[in-house]
Amino acid sequence: MKAPEILGNNEGNGMTKKRMKMQMEKPPETRTKMALWICALRLFSLPASAMPILLAGAYVFSLQRQGLANPEWWLLPLIAVAGISYHLGANLISDFYDWKSGVDRPDTYGSSRLLVNGELPPPDFLRVGFALMGLGTVLGFVMIYFTSWTLLWFGLAGCLGGIFYTKFKYVALGELLIFTLFGLLMVAGAVFALTGDVPRDAWYLAIPLACLTTNILLANNTRDISHDRRVPIKTMPILFGIRTAKVEYAALLGTAYLAVALMVGTGILDSWALLVFLTAPMALRNIHYINRAEVSEPARIREGDVMAARLQMMFSIALIGGIIISAFRV
């Protein structure tokens, strides 16, 4: 409802017109090229790729303290830069195809909005996106040279998954891809690069972060149901409905905490890993927030993806901290 309708009098109309005139007279906001590219890369989303790699590092450190691994720590910065490069490249390529297919429009949420607003040339998104993919690939081959060709399969999955991410998202497989790439393979691949092996426990350890990172996309797709229906794509919330999406969101959150509890109970993790439960109030707030979602009112959960990303980061920090504390107690 517009302001004049709320105020219901001429004074209200006059105040609103005056406000609008003042806004129109403001000089247009200008941003430097660097600021635009920082926005385009969506650097705020880096924990989605950085945290699984740091978790892998913490796990390998605990193995080393127990005398179970002799890691090549000098490879960790290369792993981080390669993984983050794939992530940022995928962000740009995804934004380009979302813009080109009409998924991102002036009235939609998400993305960097730079293509929608015409602030950067669309071809530049692809050029920089593929350049970042190239950087990650070059670093991957450097690591393969010093480790094993087995690492190629992890890198290939990450590269192709990033390039063709929108293809998966448009057929309701985006959540499955994120669960696999940013959860299972990111952690397992980093562990393999550092140690030359992937113990079974490393796959278990990846599950909580896989669940929480998947919820970032699920919150985004749940919010955007009404917008995405205008184009010929199918996301999971469109396919199964908003009620199922809410249940899935809560189930993924519950699975993350349950997985940690089970790993502590079975001796895979020390009790210090239970520090993740300090983030449980955030998780409950997120569930309550997502349950407000209505298909016709996407603004009700406008910050859902940001809240999910924040929880993933805080949960990861608590889990990594718990593992490192436990390692020093060995």
Architecture overview:
The chain has 330 residues and is mostly helical. It has one domain (44-328): Farnesyl Diphosphate Synthase (Orthogonal Bundle). The protein is 70% helix and 0% strand. It contains 15 helices and no strands. It has helices spanning 3-7, 10-25, 33-41, 47-65, 76-100, 122-146, 151-163, 165-169, 174-195, 200-223, 225-228, 236-240, 242-265, 280-290, 304-328. α4 packs antiparallel against α10 and α9 runs antiparallel to α10 (200-223).
What is the helix content?
A: over 70%
The CATH architecture can be named as Orthogonal Bundle
Strand content: under 5%
SSE string, helix = H, strand = E?
A: HHHHHHHHHHHHHHH
Radius of gyration: 22 Å
CATH topology, what is it called?
Farnesyl Diphosphate Synthase
N-to-C terminal Cα separation, in Å? 62 Å
- Structural class, judged by helices and strands? mainly alpha
Question: Number of domains in the coordinates?
Answer: 1
**Biggest sheet descriptor:** none
**Average of pLDDT:** 89
The number of distinct helices, counting runs of at least 4 residues, comes to: 15
CATH class: Mainly Alpha
Q: How many beta-strand elements?
A: 0
